[in-house]
């Protein structure tokens, strides 16, 4: 459930008509619903109540907006971060350092230092070499870095190839068959407090079977590590639960997921850690756009909108579906391709799809844009960086300004020797 609904024929975000935002903020823009974020955070937590001792860390990469993170911090969520910048964002938003998990395959020395300086709760180590580096840095400071070893279980998540992370050919974690030996060597290093293992097999999962298979393998690994004398107190089960983008998608609910987790992990006697992202933020946001014009095409008309692939990258890079709706639908439909102004054939949101009939200057929305939307936006073709708006009841605030090309150009410099014709 989300809080984007029609009232009197006009799409609202909670109690606010979207045309009000379009008039005052302009388009394109992202619109988030506080009530939806809070509801999804609560439902996910409630779904895992049967699993015992749990730790929830929102995957910041899904939506790093400070206002969004503050809402989730207020809901008791920590943060799963994959860069020093995300770590600082999480702290700035009010998330507790001890509730921050630092994941990611390429943590630099400076980022490891930053994590230690900020006193974060856990590093998820992606390789033996990373563990050795972290141990050396921590030991030199008289510290022990809390850490888990991320394992690659060689499980196909059944999702898009570009968001799969748990197959043997993926770059993440260490192969599960060599994990015990690596774990043993890392556990002997003075600078590490190695306390468990971590796993994450992909994003936008539509079935529980791959996750269950993965968790069963992790349970066997935990048993093996304990048999070797290791104390295992934490297991990070990652994230990846999907959301419905298309009408025929019906991903597992947090309650169904929680039932499976409780059953598979029974008897582990650990703190179970989770890193939800899309399942919290996806349906909490839409991207609003305005129709520039309708262009006749050979097979169907082109609806040219002011949003583009630089504002919402997922359709261009994943062939992802985002449902399009008119803000003021007439009840009529049309078959059309919805495209943006960028000079790329991949700048297309929907190809020959039946959609609400729209005309020039009409407003429309792309649904399920609260995750991996604004966070992946860029300024290709020297376009402005898309703004973000948060709605709370009948009020709103701009929580990320539109960054105009002039502001971006101000950060660029032509050297004097070029100005002089050198």
TrEMBL record:
Positions of the Orn/DAP/Arg decarboxylase 2 C-terminal domain: 29-370
Gene Ontology MF, one: diaminopimelate decarboxylase activity
Catalytic reaction(s) noted: meso-2,6-diaminopimelate + H(+) = L-lysine + CO2
Keyword Lyase: yes
UniProtKB keywords: Amino-acid biosynthesis, Decarboxylase, Lyase, Lysine biosynthesis, Pyridoxal phosphate
Top-level enzyme category: lyase
Annotated binding of pyridoxal 5'-phosphate, by residue: 240, 275-278, 372
Cofactors: pyridoxal 5'-phosphate
UniProt-listed Enzyme Commission number(s): 4.1.1.20
Signal peptide start-end: none
Modified residues (N6-(pyridoxal phosphate)lysine): 61
Residue ranges of every copy of the Orn/DAP/Arg decarboxylase 2 N-terminal domain listed in the record: 35-281
Description of how the protein assembles with itself and partners: Homodimer.
Protein name: Diaminopimelate decarboxylase
Gene symbol of the encoding locus: lysA
